Amino acid sequence: MAAVNAVADLTLESDIAVLTIDSPPVNALSAKVRDALRDGFAQAIADPAAKAIVLICAGRTFIAGADIAEFGKPMTGASLPEAQLAIENSPKPVIAAIHGTALGGGFEVALVAHYRVAVPSAKFGLPEIKLGIIPGAGGTQRLPRLIGPEAALEAILSGTPFSAKQAASWGVVDAIVEEGALREGALAFARDVLAKGLPLRKVRDLDDKIAPARGKPETFAAIRKAHAKKFRGFEAWERAIQAVQDAVELPFDEGLARERKTFLELLASPQSRAQRHVFFAERQVWKIADIADTTPTLPIAKVGVIGAGTMGGGIAMNFLNAGLPVTIVETSEMALARGLSVIRKNYENTAKKGRMSAAEVETRMGLLTGVLEIGKLADCDLIIEAVFENMGVKKEIFAKLDAIAKAGAILASNTSYLDIDEIAAATKRPESVLGLHFFSPANVMKLLEVVRGDKTGKPVIATAMALAKRIGKIAALVGVCHGFVGNRMLAQRQREAQKLILEGAMPWDVDRVLYDFGLPMGPFAMSDLAGLDIGWSKETTSSSTIREILCEQDRRGQKTSAGFYDYDENRNAKPSPVVEKIILDFAAAKGINRRVIADAEILERCLYPMINEGAKILEEGKAQRASDIDIVWINGYGWPVYTGGPMFWADTLGLDKVLEALRRYEAEMGEDFRPSALLDRLVAEGKGFKDL
Ligand code: T1G
């Protein structure tokens, strides 16, 4: 055995050379790994005893892509294309042996091998689009030659890995070998290649899968049309489609050169920097400074949910989807029946769309029990309260739970802003109490704010974070304050949006600016969707806000086909002359001189106070890191991922610019814009949130 370098060694198994890459955690294509590929293949090719070469990786996975941590830094060592040429042009058959996830540059390395074998659990993918780039080492040129342009674009635009079984059916993989016996399987395959004198197949030479699409731009036009809505605001997707079109229309080397040029351009783009920030932020968010990964977690085998309304039902579905039995409590037969039927309908709709079998619907519904007595939750390991937002009611429920729940049970509230410490104080076991703040629709939205109370125990937090992963959520640990992280920052935007429509803008102006910025919806369209009458009552209404007046005129939002907007029979919104008059009359009655408000002011006044509030949240330690706030907003409120989240975006703008604007607005409009001390300090030190 000869060490090629610190991350690779070369062994000779009778007449087969085996190059083993070993660079934890995921054998990413760092400079050392690229060097090892170039030098390892040169050594194996030069060794007369080696008749074929197997490329395999140690550890949990085959090469999972380029080393993202190296992006943006000066490149050292061999380039990836250089290492790939050494493999593709080997005069000896090269077999890539794949386990774990062959992703991005890792898959592109496998695609220059002459043959590929994999274990059944292996996965393949080109997830570069999630980093704001396109595959940059031949993926857009070689994959279409193996599976056709449409399937290749589906894989590239989704970034979703596909299975070894799928890869085998597409001919991407030449053999599936026994799980756990990859090395032996690959060596046997190599011997078979030698014995049969099979050719040095180069994917670059294939044409049969791309020829049918040649001279048919309509193929790509259709793909563009199908993805336009999903990729609104993103840059890379259009470039990916163009690259695959080049693969079909141009000679291989020309297409490859164009791909590389596009890849390098996108790599230097603000969008890719932002999405790379999000990649690492999504991994950081799980790490809790004072809770070690080894902290014991509590067993969760049975879950209780109090309230079968929209939130309770959605929350229950998360656990049913993870195979956990759920007992759901309601106060009346009718409310319980309604709640259970909504859950069943949701599953049946999913089955209708072919995303679940009828048997699976029954399996999940079979795990669900509806009851009317809270006492029936006594044997649950976790109980989540999801009733309407009233502190008195919640404290009453937690006092009851304290009396009936078994020792060690975790008691959680789904409140979206109330004080978890006050709720915990209603029990004699505050160490077992925390907030689990789901986002509506709770079975769809990925974000979970895990709210840590003053007395919440570390095993309870560790259990909640692990459980979040189990139910497919991304969890952010937040502290107790009004609205926690997401809603606390949202309140800043909502306040300014309300003020702006009095001062001179119209609801559709504010929504347009935020929609064009990349948010899925503006505050007024969002209110119409949620319903303007949440928290409103005919009895107490007093025409004191635009919202109240709209409700008084039975404009409750989409459900009444009228709210801030008028809605047609297809629920398409259009600006409303009725609302315009209501706003003008209301402002006049308040003696407000309306003025023309520029889009830039709308954007600054809606987003900068949010960033400022984010800074206060960090100052108070209600979030561990600025990137956690980015994760909250991207996964809970649809903040455009290609800007990296509000805090990363602020750094991109320059905190000095944000501070200057806040000071300007504070001078004109008062303390709502008073900059936080942290913002002041960071600007004074010439730093950003990323430096915290
Ligand atoms: N580069 C650097 N670090 C990486 C990495 C990568 N590609 N992939 C993972 N890590 C780190 C990660 O930060 C974490 O570190 C640890 O490994 C475990 O990861 C030319 C240019 C492979 C499916 O986009 O999807 O190739 O937090 O917690 O859940 O066309 O990681 O422990 O310090 O995610 O088991 C394309 C990215 C790159 C794959 C494993 N490749 N990685 O998931 O573990 S672009 C990707 C993943 C490219 C070419 C282009 C996942 C995983 P730490 P983890 P996991």
Biggest beta sheet summary: 8 strands, mixed
- The largest beta-sheet arranges its strands as 13-12-11-14-15-16-17-18
Through-space gap between termini: 46 Å
Taking pLDDT < 50 over at least 5 consecutive residues as the criterion, the unreliable ranges are none
Number of strands: 20
Q: Quick check: average pLDDT?
A: 97
The total count of helices amounts to: 27
The percent of residues in helical segments reads: 40-55%
Q: Give a list of the ligands.
A: (2S,3S)-3-hydroxy-2-methylbutanoyl-COA
How many whole angstroms does the radius of gyration measure?
A: 29 Å
Which structural class do the helices and strands define?
alpha/beta
Percent in strands? 5-15%
Please tell me what the overall shape is: globular
What features would you describe in this structure?
The mean pLDDT is 97. Helix content is 46%, strand content 12%. The two termini are 46 Å apart. By secondary structure, the protein is of the alpha/beta class. The strands form four sheets. An eight-stranded mixed beta sheet has the order 13-12-11-14-15-16-17-18, with helices on both faces. The chain has a seven-stranded mixed beta sheet with strand order 1-2-3-4-5-7-10, with helices on both faces. Helix 25 (646-653) packs across helix 26 (655-669). The protein has 27 helices and 20 strands. Bound molecules: (2S,3S)-3-hydroxy-2-methylbutanoyl-COA. Residues 25-26, 28, 61, 64-69, 80, 101, 103-105, 108, 127-128, 131, 135-137, 139, 280, 283 line the site of (2S,3S)-3-hydroxy-2-methylbutanoyl-COA.
